[in-house]
Design a protein that fits this description.
This is DUF1513 domain-containing protein. By secondary structure, this protein is mainly beta. The chain is built from 2 helices and 30 strands.
Length: 361
């Protein structure tokens, strides 16, 4: 659990971060001019049992970092209050709210002894609510915790009844929630129900009513990471929990009221992803998905659903879309700007980025 001493230490470090931004390592050769404007936020690994959340400019070069009590995972960004929320990696014990402009620590919320966080959350479109994926430790019963932003992130509601083991929640442009329900009951990180797991992509109203649930034909495809295309299409990335020598598709698209549509690649290409998709982003033409376990990322045509390019990237991690192109992070420190298949550039950030990035609009 997060202690008062930890809170004080974090606050001290956050205040120091206001005046001591982190300068990028090894950037002289890249000839990239560093900006002072925050544009990207992601969690990072700094060393053995040492973790932080990093605020970066549009190039992916660090402006400052704040220490985390344990390894972080996803980050939610509030676009008008300059708030960001770093969520602990599952089974997480905290989420931390901070000002991404000043580095000020706003609040550190601890999970109760009966609950844990699954590593992701998102703000409502109007900025009033923070939605977080949560679960009961004893049963992995899925919960979306609802927190009142203006009331200091007090919990005001819980949505449930959609399954076991939710991982990521996103907000659609029309305010509906899409939830990647992994379907796996765990003890810590150890799975307990792989034979009977029931993953789904679940849609909720903004008041928590279940609208629709869809599943893939293989129940061992645990639906985990999500993105949307700025309109009505949800993209979901899976973790395969079945036979180790089988390599089913790990990406799918869905629109409410329609069937799931798996994206296409050859089995040997899916094998490169090592049964796991971490981060997803989409433009109007392309879909990009990363796999840190596979040390690669792929680019699919949104119109044909076919894999167009497969790129090697050690510990390929976060991806965001901006103005029709992608930024991809790496646990080895590289930052890729991918304009289209075959058109990319690379710099070195000096940051050991973790699984996800979030973009400040």
């Amino acid at each position: 659990m997060v202690t008062d001493h930890t809170r004080r230490s974090l606050l001290k470090a956050a205040l120091l971060g206001i005046t001591t931004p982190i300068l990028p390592i090894g950037c002289a050769k890249s000839k990239v001019v560093m900006s002072t404007k925050p544009a990207l936020i992601g969690c990072a690994i700094q060393g053995r049992n040492k973790y932080s959340v990093v605020v970066a400019d549009e190039q992916g070069l660090a402006l400052r970092h704040l220490p985390l009590p344990s390894r972080g995972h996803g980050v939610a960004i509030h676009q008008t209050l300059n708030h960001a929320v770093a969520f602990a990696r599952r089974p997480g014990e905290y989420f931390m709210v901070f000002d991404y402009v000043t580095g000020e620590l706003i609040t550190l919320t601890s999970a109760t002894s009966e609950r844990h966080y699954y590593g992701h959350g998102v703000f409502s479109n109007d900025g009033k609510w923070l939605y977080a994926t949560e679960g009961e430790r004893a049963t992995s019963r899925g919960i979306i915790g609802v927190y009142d932003v203006l009331a200091g992130y007090d919990k005001v509601a819980e949505f449930t009844g959609f399954g076991v083991g939710p991982h990521e929640v996103i907000v659609m442009p029309d305010d509906k929630l899409a939830v990647g329900v992994g379907g796996v009951h765990t003890d810590g990180r150890r799975p307990l129900n792989l034979a009977s797991m029931k993953p789904s992509l679940s849609y909720l109203t903004s008041s928590g009513e279940l609208l629709e649930q869809v599943s893939l034909s293989d129940h061992h495809l645990s639906i985990r990471h999500l993105a949307h295309d700025g309109s009505t299409t949800v993209l979901c990335g899976q973790q395969y929990r079945g036979e180790p020598d089988e390599y089913p598709p790990l990406l799918a698209m869905h629109t409410l009221g329609e069937p799931m549509c798996s994206l296409q690649a050859q089995p040997e290409e899916w094998a490169r992803f090592n049964h796991y998709i971490a981060s997803i982003a989409a433009t109007d033409q392309w879909i990009l998905a990363t796999s840190p376990r596979g040390n690669c990322y792929g680019i699919w045509s949104k119109h044909t659903g076919e894999l167009e390019e497969l790129n090697v990237l050690p510990d390929a991690s976060g991806v965001i879309e901006k103005e029709g192109y992608f930024k991809v992070s790496s646990g080895a420190g590289s930052v890729i700007t991918q304009y289209s298949p075959g058109n990319k550039s690379k710099i070195y950030s000096g940051i050991q980025w973790d699984n996800h990035w979030s973009r400040i609009l």
